[in-house]
Amino acid sequence: MSRILAIHLLNDRSGSPFVFRQSLEALQKEGHKIILFTSASEDGFLSDIPGVNYRFINYRWSKIKLITLFNFAKVNLHLLLVFLVKTNKNDIIYINSILPFGAAIAGRLKHSKVIYHMHEVSIKPEALKKWLITVVNHCASTCIHVSHFLKDALQLTVSDQQVIYNSLPQSFIQLAKNNNQTASTSHSFNILMICSLKDFKGIPEFIKLAAELPEMHFDLVLNASPAQIEDYFRDKQLSQNINTYPSQKDVHPFYQNTDVLVNLSRTDEWLETFGMTVLEGMYYGKPCIVPTKGGASELITHNQNGYHIAGKNTDELKKILTQLKNETTLYNSLSKKAFESALTFHPNHFKKAITDLFTLKSSH
């Protein structure tokens, strides 16, 4: 088996490192030697993967864009220099997301195979996105896309491009199955959204929706610290029926106690390329409301296991949520179909697709 040099810049609790961990665990069990370059973190999804060797990189996100851009350029220069020294022709460089371009350039210069796992399409500024796409087109031997939407949106010229849908770990699925056997004791109709602390994720829309549906309860789980959340909401008025929570290691209680999961991302600012929280909600049998465009819409069939509704369409959201609250037969039908749809994204399919790809690449 080959040596895989894996890279993900920011080890946090967002969707792309969550998926990347599953890939690395599957590849490690197949016998590949994995060296992971990522930022140091005690509770990121990429922390403490058994059998994986770590090389920590100094990358931090800042709310000041110029500082983030400086850190981004600095860490990529570091990766370029390190990989020029450390990489050999037989290595596979496995890059998670489009961002670590320094490793890709080094891989091309050292004639190594470069495999990208693509997760994002909404990158700003546009000049940066064009640069990153150019690097991918010139350096990648293979690109993995998490949805057909992403593959079509990026329009890369890389000859080998494959769609491998994300999945959830078997441990998550088993716990969801166990929890589903325990009925929620909540008497309120609960709406859940889990997202990053960004306006374009639809947080203002979620706040407005809660204010206009006082008979329902709203939970907002954010990939952020308590201090960041306090700063964000300092000048915002929240209704009594909404609770906010910082980044959670265990999201199962939220799924177990909710009735509907929503994703209100603004499609003119941010297009979801898959939607891990949507899949998590589906395994709990929760009807999901997702944007009308993007990868999340590939998981949901409108009027069958959920709905495609724009986050800014508050009237339609209120109508559907009220209908689901009041019509038990409709709710139960969507709930059943949500769970059945989730089974088509089983982790065994994901693991086989990933390991087959790397086995093929390591043999050529």
From TrEMBL:
Q: Which Pfam families match?
A: Glyco_transf_4, Glycos_transf_1
Give the source's domain of life in one word. Answer: Bacteria
Q: Where's the Glycosyl transferase family domain? A: 183-339
Question: Which InterPro entries has this protein been placed in?
Answer: Glyco_trans_1 (IPR001296), Glyco_trans_4-like_N (IPR028098), Glycosyltransferase_grp1 (IPR050194)
Q: Which residues form the Glycosyltransferase subfamily 4-like N-terminal domain?
A: 22-166
GO MF annotation: an example: glycosyltransferase activity
Q: What is this protein called?
A: Glycosyltransferase family 4 protein
